[in-house]
Amino acid sequence: MDDVQRLVKAAQGGDQNAFGQIVTAHHERTYRLIYRIVNNESDAQDLAQQTWVKAWNKLSAFKGKSAFSTWLYRIAVFTAWDFLRKKKRRAEVSFFENPEEGPLTNPAHPQIAPESPVGALRRKEIREQFQIALNSITEKQRTVLVLREIEGLSYKEIAHIMKCRIGTVMSRIHNARQSIQAKMEDFR
Q1: Which of 37, 161, 171, 188 has its CA 20 to 30 A from that of 144?
Q2: Within 13 Å and on the Cβ side, how many CA atoms surround 86?
């Protein structure tokens, strides 16, 4: 039994400290996943908090048939989707952030040399067009793309999270990529 399983068992028995350790270990990835779906820091923070409250309240329902993170991601994804449906707006997912700021910045990968103005302009145009292309696909397509490409989950894990078949996941990813590639045609 690994550490996460031991913590989950302890938390299911009412150990709030164990649950706190689980939150500490998984909060950042959960927040980033939600942020990529709703594209708003404040909303993502609120939704991450809601996700943890739901996870605590439903912890007894976790049977260990999947990884805890898969179970948690399912709660996070559906919490974010419910929020978007209630707001009646489309989610905007950003795979790129300004290198100087934002929650997705990775200080472990600093820029080695200053970029030329032409190169910076080109990258900005590509990011803007990519964002337009990304916003044009459905919430479900964006979500499976984030889970696969950013979170690195398997098709099976994504299918479990999304409550659909593996073939559906593959189809959504394929359609999302095709749509984005078509909209990025000018940047090849």
Answers
A1: 188
A2: 9
